[in-house]
Amino acid sequence: MPETLRRAVTENRERILQERHNLFMEEVGSRMVLSFFIAAALPLFFLEMRTEPPFIGWYTVLLCVAAQSLFLIRFYNAHREHEAPKTRKWHRLNLYLAMIWAMLWSSFPYLFLQGATPVTLLTCLVILSVATSIPSVSMGVYPDIFIGFITPVYLAWLAFILVYVPEAPGIIKMIPLINLIFMVLFSLYIHRSQISTIALRIEAEQASERASKASESKTRFLAAASHDLRQPLQAATLYAAMLKNNAAPQPEIVAKLDTAIASCNELLGHLLMLSRLQSQRLKPRKRIINLLNTLQPILDEVRPQASAKQLTVIIENLAGQHIFTDGIMFARIVRNLVSNALKYTEQGHIRIVARQQDKQLLLDIEDTGIGIDDIYQSDVFEEFMQIDNDQRSIQNGLGLGLAIVSRLGALCEIPVQMRSRKGEGTTFTLTLPAAATCLPPPADNVVNALPLFETLTVLLIDDDKRVTEALSGLLGSLGATVSAHHALEPAMQALKERGSPPSVVITDDQIGPHTNAGSVIEAVTALFRQPVPTLIITGNTNPDFIQTLPDDIDVLFKPVAADTLTAKLEEMLAPSSVA
């Protein structure tokens, strides 16, 4: 059995058991009826014995077994909905019935074939062989039941022939044994085939269900994203029109315009993060980080907002704690959780506390907000799931924060647990890998002491003139030396004239019809016979594209804020250190 099929059988063991049971019970009634008529017909060839006690006794037992079988089948059919899940109970009952029928067939030759001729014996064996070899799902669904039935029957007939009919030809003596062997092998073969068929069908059904759910999720995702993006864009459009129609300075309108644009950027950033997570392109860069230092910028952000709502921000036991994880992803998780706490809490406090548990550090983010109803708690980590935001107001959030928390937590191996009670608040608990101490910082040197951007040389390639002008202006204002180009050929010519590699290459992914970021990286590496740090800035967020990017190449997705760009360059070019 192929490994993928074996895994499918293991994962769906209970469902396969139920399917097997259903197949067996659909046929077992007709199988019992057939066995009864064949068994009842055979003794009719020996009517001269009909007044004998063995004949009467055997028929009495046959009728009792048939009546019992019929009663059990009728009971099952009458209570199918209640009894169908009890697969193990009915498996035992059917095994019991198979053993009773086996006793009847096994006793038959000893009661009716004493002194029978080889021809009569052969006739009975043929009838027995036909009766047990009629194609049936029960042969493969439960091979233990089928084999448990035929084994004592054929062995009893073989023993009878060897003891009471020793003069029978060898072929007659071999029929019971040959039939038994072949029927056992055939039953096992049919069993394996049926299990594979059931497992493949279940896999197909599950794949269809997953595809259907993915399609529904995508439709819901796009509809919600479109709605949430249109709101701030509409507002920005109106604010821009107001500015055009009024020559006087309008600081309030400018502030509102900035807010609308920030909302657009927030949504695009969340969508980009989800896209990168789905592409599995995002890889955590784990190191030892100081917990308080990492969370301090988040605390500085949240305190003014909390004060405006008259909320108390409480932190406990953060100082001196160190963990081993990706600092940027961890901060994103905490920021989303704190943002949620701030959004849904109108009075009381937001509390962030660390506590030790064995070799792990538990970080609780607790609020006294509206809480989450039990019926929603299994859905809060889904995209665009929002509590208490029926009108989908953009000020109330996008419904993506907890989806990102869940996926980043899984990526960084940080389990996220939630406890919540409606009207009382919510607590999220992060299980973090604690680090005993912080590593010493690297030794200072002259290069580290110099401002990064004053020593930075940048090769910039983008076929959009507006992008090269804006990036050149930004980096130049920070002190960097920028060589900007709209195509690969003039960029390479400039590098040859310069004679030394730049500090960093910043390039768009697609530069004209036949050149992309890969072409740039190959050309620069070949020219200087060494890799040069490269940052790709692109607007292509297709998961398939993201999946193809090399793991060691840094990528930012448009639109890129100035502080995001400078932080990425500092991360790429500054010597790695421990926070």
Mean pLDDT: 78
What does the largest sheet look like?
7 strands, mixed
Morphology: elongated
Give the N-terminus to C-terminus distance in angstroms. 51 Å
Mind telling me the C-alpha Rg?
A: 38 Å
Q: Give me the secondary-structure category.
A: alpha/beta
Share in β-strands: 5-15%
Tell me how many strands there are: 12
Please, how many helices? 19
Q: Give the low-confidence spans.
A: 389-398, 438-450
The percent range for helix content is: 55-70%
Q: What are the main properties of this structure?
A:
7-stranded mixed beta sheet; alpha/beta; single chain; 5-stranded parallel beta sheet; about 60% helix; Sig_transdc_resp-reg_receiver; elongated; about 575 residues
Explain what you see.
- The strands form two sheets. Strands 1, 2, 3, 4, 5, 6 and 7 form a seven-stranded mixed sheet that branches.
- With 579 residues, the chain is of the alpha/beta class.
- The protein is built from 19 helices and twelve strands.
- About 4% of the residues have low confidence.
- Pfam families: HATPase_c, HisKA.
- Its EC number is 2.7.13.3.
Summed up, what is this model?
The protein is an alpha/beta fold and 579 residues long. 59% of the residues lie in helices and 12% in strands.
